[in-house]
Design brief:
Elements (H helix, E strand, L loop, with lengths): L19 H68 L4
Length: 91
């Protein structure tokens, strides 16, 4: 078998470029994949926007809560200080 070279005739093998239907199927599959990936990306963007809105709302609620606590503590301290001041014996 030494010296024997097998010969393959590549011209008889069909390629996607030779078959117009195969080419159409490939293009259609690509466009379907692109449409699916585009829909997936839009769904992801919508999901992230919703998550951001929820987090911003929670942040505003927490800021309002903290502001109320600070005001309550400030006025409570102020009120207690006034009570203490008024209860002191003045000489």
């Amino acid at each position: 078998m030494s010296g024997y070279v097998s010969f393959i005739d590549f011209s008889t093998i069909a390629t996607p470029r030779d078959d117009p239907y195969s080419r159409y199927t490939y293009k259609k599959q690509r466009s379907d994949d692109n449409a699916c990936s585009q829909q997936d990306l839009l769904a992801l963007v919508d999901s992230l926007r919703l998550e951001l809105r929820v987090k911003e709302s929670r942040l505003r609620d927490m800021e309002e809560y903290m502001d109320n606590l600070v005001c309550q503590d400030y006025f409570a301290d102020l009120y207690c200080g006034m009570k203490l001041y008024n209860s002191m014996d003045r000489v």
